[in-house]
Every structure is written in structure tokens, then in C-alpha cells.
Amino acid sequence: ERAALARYAARPAVTADGTRVELAANIGTAAEAKAAAEQGAGGVGLFRTEFLFMNAPAMPGEEEQFRAYREAAAAMDGRPVIIRTMDIGGDKALPYLDLPREDNPFLGYRAIRIGLGRQDLLKVQLRAVLRASAFSNVKVMFPMISGLQEWREAKGVLEEAKEELRRSGAAFDERIEAGIMVEVPSAAVMAGAFACEVDFFSIGTNDLVQYTLAVDRMNDKVAYLYDYFHPAVLQLIRQVIEASHRAGKWTGMCGGMAGDPLAAPLLLGLGLDEWSMEAGRLGVIKKELSALDREACRSLADSVLTLDTPHAVRQALEEFRRAIG
Ligand code: PEP
Ligand code: MG
């Protein structure tokens, strides 16, 4: 069984009807990029850069960041590597940043909100990402975007970083793609407006579920309510994918749902373009996708999106899976 999955992991991801699917890995360090490449990742869909900051005694400078991003990108050998700007706050503290104590850290000063509050730090990170883009296929992504204004401000800092590098003669990819994580419901609701401006979306189901259903993702007492198969979450996911496609853009998913084989037929049917997960999940998901027919999955998605409880959704997905053996 293990050996069979390892064989799947090494191949490109192709569905039974011959559709190629982008399967990528979530990583937290450059070293993990190497391991992910060995496990058959077609790229990195989420580089959680906050670990670079959390594992350091002081704020890493531009050179140190640049080397880490270049190393991770090099391990992927030309395949896309999506670098997410730091997602500090919430449950992730940074001792040397002196963040305020908050009653509701997950609703507070977190991720892009810190990036825009401390544009000096965001700028250094974006310069490092841009410089890495001179060497390989690097994209940049902003976490926790809740409205157009935040995205435009973040994009503005990216443009400033580009201008500084141009002036100093430093090389970078002028056509670097910039996208947002969709993990706050307001961003999903506004996907049509975002789609005209961003290059791509990546759905972060870990937070999207928490914020859509008002369920703390770390509280066992309410864990029974935490479910990405909730119809409200599914409608948001569909809305994001459809909005991106109408604008000629693509949508990935880097939350835990992407690594769940039960979700694979539904996500394929909804038109998801890229799956990103812990590298250890790649074999299982590739095997699952290889058994799927896209048309059949489209019909499945249409009918599943009419269901009104997570339980009914799970039942329908389990039944579908049993039927294809
Ligand atoms: C998510 O929220 O789904 C996500 C991928 O980001 P993180 O788990 O790092 O918050
Ligand atoms: Mg998140």
C-alpha cells in the first residue's frame, strides 16, 4: 500500500479522463521544499514564511530572507513556488515584534494587517521575494485579505519594492504573479471584484471555515461544528472558483480540505485548478484523482451544492466514492 502510494506520488496528477491537475505542497522551510520535491510535488502552493521569523532570535533581514526563498524555489526546479507574506498574529507570536495582547487575536492585528501596519517589514520581505523571482518561478500571496483596499495597499507596497529594485539595478521577474488567500468570508463574497485585479486566488479553508461558521479552529469544545463540508463554505468556494474563471484567473486551495480524498471529486467538479497540501498527502490525493472523471464530478458538484447540511454532503460524497469503487 505504501509502495503503491509512493508510485502515485512520483507521477504527474492526471484524472481518469486525462485532465492534468496541479498538485503542490505546503511548506514552512526551504528544507521542506526539497522533501516535497522528492515526494512528487508539482510546486509549492503555500510557503508559510512565518516560520522563518518565528525560528529566529531577531527579525531576519533582506539577505537572509532572500537566501531562504531562493533555496526553496531552487528545490522546485522551475516549478511554481507561492510565497505567502508573513502570517503572524492569531496564534503565532513573534517575541521581538512586541505585539499587543488582544482579547480576540484571530479577529485582531494579524497577517496582512501587521504587514500594512508595518510596511517597512513588508517591504523588506517583498524585496527578498522579488529578488528570488529572478532565479525561478516565484509568485507572491497575501494572507487574511478582507477587502479590496487591503489588497490594493499591499499591491502598492509590492510596486514600491519593484521600483526600488529597478533603481538599484537588482534583477527580478517583472511579470511576477501576485494573488490573495481567500480565508475571510468577505473576500469570498467579493471574489468577482478581486478577480479583476489579482492574478490568482488560494482558498485557505482552515481559516475560511473558522470565520464563516464562527468556530474557533483550536477549540475542542466546538470542534463538532468545524466542517469544510458545511454548505455555506461550499457555496463560498464555488463562488470564488467561478469568479476567478470568469475573469480568466485560476484558483488553488491550500487549506486542509485540499488534502482530504473525500473532498477531491467535489473540488474537481467545482473546477478547482490547484491543490496544495502537506507533502505526505500527495500520493493519496493523486491516487484519488486518477480514478475520477471530470464530467461525473461536475454532476456530483451540482447535486452536492443543493444539499443543506454537512452530514448530507458527507453522505453524498461517501456514496459517490463507493460507487466508483
Ligand atoms: C488556511 O487558513 O487555510 C491556511 C492555509 O493558512 P494557515 O493554516 O497558515 O492559517
Ligand atoms: Mg490561514
Structure description:
It comes from Paenibacillus cineris. It is a single chain. By secondary structure, this protein is an alpha/beta fold. The two termini are 16 Å apart. The chain has 15 helices and nine strands. α2 links the parallel β2 and β3 (44-48). An eight-stranded parallel barrel has the order 2-3-4-5-6-7-8-9, surrounded by six helices. It is globular and about 60 Å long. Bound molecules: phosphoenolpyruvate (PEP) and magnesium ion (MG). The site of magnesium ion (MG) has 4 residues, from α10.
Question: What is the compact description of this entry?
Answer:
This protein has 15 helices and 9 strands. With 325 residues, it is an alpha/beta fold.
* Shape by Cα distribution: globular
Specify the helix fraction band: 40-55%
Could you say which structural class the secondary elements and strand pairing correspond to? Answer: alpha/beta
Mean pLDDT: 95
Secondary structure: number of strands: 9
| Distinct ligands, ions and cofactors found in the model | phosphoenolpyruvate, magnesium ion
